[in-house]
């Protein structure tokens, strides 16, 4: 187990920003923190990095407390911009890489590799303030991963990027993970967590709503979704056992059922009627789970 968080709490005055969360992040995994603004994601990250002192609870990495001795093994991308606007890209990134223990030569090679990979080679000698927000985000990510850290913490890494650049950065994050880095990232985009992560923690107003293996969470949740397409009238399904909700748009019906076991009866009923183009049972989405657990739509 790479990271183990136990009963972690942070209180600011009368506000509890993080309320007794318990998380285990396996070594070499990609772990997602999902939640809206004010959920407690950034506060949790700052406590992991010792930028904030927990009110109570413990954080262990490979069984030990995280201290200054670990600095060179960690990469951190903060949500807010943290680069000096008046410095050139090369000056800023090479300086930070040397602080992390890299030689100037190795840092220069790594910088050229990442600038090429992120398609921003023309910005090497430009001042940070002259770059677009998206390109500043790319440079900031390069600065956080250039030293090939074993633990990478990314706070909203894809914010402010267009879809093409999101894909470029996602590919880079996947490669770093494949090479052995443990990656923890926060986002408010459910599809990023579903695509990239095996494990997640959903936070809402500082509380841990659900956490663990995504497939297991979906399985344990029970509810499933059935999609049926065909010409026949199947309105009767809404009154069948286990059916929670049914929506019909022309020839397509989307049915939420309380458990997978109810799908078989529905299948038998419709196949007795005649031909249907599609009968598909899907796992619940993270949004379905969020609504059920929190009682409101995810923002």
Automatic annotation (TrEMBL):
Gene Ontology molecular function, alphabetical: ATP binding
Domain ABC transporter: 3-230
SMART domains documented for this protein: AAA
Entry-linked InterPro entries: AAA+_ATPase, ABC_transporter-like_ATP-bd, ABC_transporter-like_CS, ABC_transporter_ATP-binding, DrrA1/2-like_C, P-loop_NTPase
Keywords, comma-separated and alphabetical: ATP-binding, Nucleotide-binding, Transport
PROSITE patterns: ABC_TRANSPORTER_1, ABC_TRANSPORTER_2
PANTHER family in UniProt: ABC TRANSPORTER ATP-BINDING PROTEIN, ABC TRANSPORTER ATP-BINDING PROTEIN NATA
Family: Belongs to the ABC transporter superfamily.
Protein name (record): ABC transporter ATP-binding protein
Organism field: Jeotgalicoccus nanhaiensis
């Amino acid at each position: 187990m790479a990271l183990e968080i136990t009963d972690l709490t942070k209180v600011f005055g009368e506000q509890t920003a993080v309320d007794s969360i318990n998380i285990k992040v396996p070594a070499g995994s990609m772990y997602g923190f999902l939640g809206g603004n004010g959920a407690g994601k950034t506060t949790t990250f700052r406590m992991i990095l010792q930028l904030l002192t927990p009110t109570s609870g413990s954080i262990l990495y490979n069984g030990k407390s995280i201290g200054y001795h670990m600095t060179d093994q960690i990469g951190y991308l903060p949500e807010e911009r943290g680069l000096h606007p008046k410095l050139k890209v090369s000056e800023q990134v090479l300086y930070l890489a040397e602080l992390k223990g890299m030689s100037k030569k190795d840092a220069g090679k790594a910088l050229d590799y990442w600038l090429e990979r992120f398609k921003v080679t023309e910005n090497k000698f430009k001042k940070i303030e002259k770059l677009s927000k998206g390109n500043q985000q790319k440079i900031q990510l390069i600065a956080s991963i250039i030293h090939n850290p074993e633990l990478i913490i990314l706070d909203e890494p894809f914010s402010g990027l267009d879809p093409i650049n999101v894909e470029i950065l996602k590919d880079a994050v996947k490669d770093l993970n494949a090479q052995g880095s443990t990656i923890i990232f926060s986002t408010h985009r459910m599809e990023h967590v579903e695509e990239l992560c095996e494990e997640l923690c959903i936070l809402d107003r500082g509380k841990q709503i659900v956490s663990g293996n995504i497939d297991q969470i979906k399985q344990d949740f029970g509810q499933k979704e059935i999609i049926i397409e065909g010409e026949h009238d199947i309105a009767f399904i809404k009154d069948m056992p286990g059916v929670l909700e049914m929506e019909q748009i022309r020839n397509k019906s989307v049915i939420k059922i309380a458990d997978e076991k109810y799908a078989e009866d529905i299948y038998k009923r419709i196949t007795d009627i005649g031909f249907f183009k599609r009968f598909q049972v899907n796992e619940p989405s993270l949004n379905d789970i969020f609504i059920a657990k929190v009682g409101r739509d995810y923002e």
